Structure formats: structure tokens, C-alpha cells
């Protein structure tokens, strides 16, 4: 196993000619896809990896300067694809990784047959004539919470993001992976993610995009999915699911897994 594979805990499962990459968002790790993977392994080669900074990665490898912008994650994804000699893939990215996939596809469109974006947002911060879901004071409070008492912040943040029952298995799972992160790394990543503005790059994306969205999502409202559809440069489709929360693949797998499988198998190029 190469250095890149080892650093990101790369795991390859399944068999098939087509490759599916599963990439997770902030506060989780590759385990967030555990309900989807068993349904893919008979037909696809599935590549999973952990973003640097996840609790499952070595915190000593985390370079604060590299991940000050989202570009650090883009370089990581491209390095993984190069090390594994991936020529073409279906990329499924959740939240942060949805934007990572979009950016990677701009410079290397030949590597991606399509991008499936789950709970994606190009900007979380509200702006004039743009609703991202957060005011700056909301984010300042969020950062202060991480700084003052990380464990308490995790306990409050997890149910808000998941939505629904505070005692649910999904909330407990997200709380676990969130708390596994080192607090200073979590703060740095939160600032990188919640302050980014990917809107200017959307027009440069030419790879077909499938946008998968919860009806109710605190972090990525439905209007954001509509904004993406209107501004992405390539062919785009949106599906709003009857689910709640920012991690529907974890909290509502019975609804989300069939939707994801349909979009993985569906070719936008075949649409009239």
C-alpha cells in the first residue's frame, strides 16, 4: 500500500468494471457509507477513503496551511486516483466532498463520468440574493462553541445536523465520529468549510451532476440545490428526498440507498 493510500485509510471492495468513489463530509469518516456499500459490491469496484482530519486519520499528518482552503482535499483526491491508476469513476461526494469532486472535475473532467452530490452547498453563508442557511453570527457562535468545550459542542451539534430524535442511532454515530476529531483540527476545518464560496467555479463544471437533497436540511436548504442546478455548467438533475437532516445516508438509509443506487446506475447522457 502506498503512502497516500495508508494516510487516507483507502479501502477497495467489490468487483465490476465501473469504479465508484465514496467520499464523506465534515465530522464523519468512510463509515458513513456503511448502508450503501453492501448494495454496490456485486456490480462495482468501490473505493472508500477518509479525508485528512477525520478521527480515523493520523492528526500528525494534518497540515493546517494545506487545508486552509478546500484545494488541499482536491489534491488528496487526485493523488488517490493517480496512485490507484483510476482512469474513470462515478464520484459520490457528501457535503464538503461534493465540492471537492466539483473542483477536481474542472481540472480533470476525463476522470469522472458523473458526480453524485449529496447535501451539497457551494456557500453556507447567506449573501445578498443568496440563502445559504447561516448568518455570520451563527458561524461565530459555532466556532466559539468548538473552542470553549468541544465535547459539549459535539453533543449539541450532532442532533441539529442529523435532525429528529436526539437518541437515534444516527445521532450517536455522528457524535462518535465528530468527537473522534482533534478539536483544533475540527475548528480549522469548520472555518475552512463554512467560510468558503464555491459559487464562482460552478459554471466551469462540465461533468454531469446528480444532486441529492433532503427536504429539510439545516446546513443545505432545498433552495441551495436549486441554485446548484441553475448554475452548474454541465447537465444536472435534482432529486429532493422525503428525508430530514444533512446526513440522510446515515439517518434514513431505507429511503436514501435506493435513490443513490438509481443515480449511480442512471446515465444523464441518455436522457432526451
From TrEMBL:
<dbReference type="InterPro" id="IPR000073">
    <property type="entry name" value="AB_hydrolase_1"/>
</dbReference>
<comment type="similarity">
    <text>Belongs to the AB hydrolase superfamily.</text>
</comment>
<dbReference type="Pfam" id="PF00561">
    <property type="entry name" value="Abhydrolase_1"/>
</dbReference>
<dbReference type="GO" id="GO:0016787">
    <property type="term" value="F:hydrolase activity"/>
</dbReference>
<feature type="domain" description="AB hydrolase-1">
    <location>
        <begin position="19"/>
        <end position="252"/>
    </location>
</feature>
<keyword id="KW-0378">Hydrolase</keyword>
<protein>
    <recommendedName>
        <fullName>AB hydrolase-1 domain-containing protein</fullName>
    </recommendedName>
</protein>
<dbReference type="InterPro" id="IPR029058">
    <property type="entry name" value="AB_hydrolase_fold"/>
</dbReference>
<dbReference type="GO" id="GO:0080167">
    <property type="term" value="P:response to karrikin"/>
</dbReference>
Amino acid at each position: 500500500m502506498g503512502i497516500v493510500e495508508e494516510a487516507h485509510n483507502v479501502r477497495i471492495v467489490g468487483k465490476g468494471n465501473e469504479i465508484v468513489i465514496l467520499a464523506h463530509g465534515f465530522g464523519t469518516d468512510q463509515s458513513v457509507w456503511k448502508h450503501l456499500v453492501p448494495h454496490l459490491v456485486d456490480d462495482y469496484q468501490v473505493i472508500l477513503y477518509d479525508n485528512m482530519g477525520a478521527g480515523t486519520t493520523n492528526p500528525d499528518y494534518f497540515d493546517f496551511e494545506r487545508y486552509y482552503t478546500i484545494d488541499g482535499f482536491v489534491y488528496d483526491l487526485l493523488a488517490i486516483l493517480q496512485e490507484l491508476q483510476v482512469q474513470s469513476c462515478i464520484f459520490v461526494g457528501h457535503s464538503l466532498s461534493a465540492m471537492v469532486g466539483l473542483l477536481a472535475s474542472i481540472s480533470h473532467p476525463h476522470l469522472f463520468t458523473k458526480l453524485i452530490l449529496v447535501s451539497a452547498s457551494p456557500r453556507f453563508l447567506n449573501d445578498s440574493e443568496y440563502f445559504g442557511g447561516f448568518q455570520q453570527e451563527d458561524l461565530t457562535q459555532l466556532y466559539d462553541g468548538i473552542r470553549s468545550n468541544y465535547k459539549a459542542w459535539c453533543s449539541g451539534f450532532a442532533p441539529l445536523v442529523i435532525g429528529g430524535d436526539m437518541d437515534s442511532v444516527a445521532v450517536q454515530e455522528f457524535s462518535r465520529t465528530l468527537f473522534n476529531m482533534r478539536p483544533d483540527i475540527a475548528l480549522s476545518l469548520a472555518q475552512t468549510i463554512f467560510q468558503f464560496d464555491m459559487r464562482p467555479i460552478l459554471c466551469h463544471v462540465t461533468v454531469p451532476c446528480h444532486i441529492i437533497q433532503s427536504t429539510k436540511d439545516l446546513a443545505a436548504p432545498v433552495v441551495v440545490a436549486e441554485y446548484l442546478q441553475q448554475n452548474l455548467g454541465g447537465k444536472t438533475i435534482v432529486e429532493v428526498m422525503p428525508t430530514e437532516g444533512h446526513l440522510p445516508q446515515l439517518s434514513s438509509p431505507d429511503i436514501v440507498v435506493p435513490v443513490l443506487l438509481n443515480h449511480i446506475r442512471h446515465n444523464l447522457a441518455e436522457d432526451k
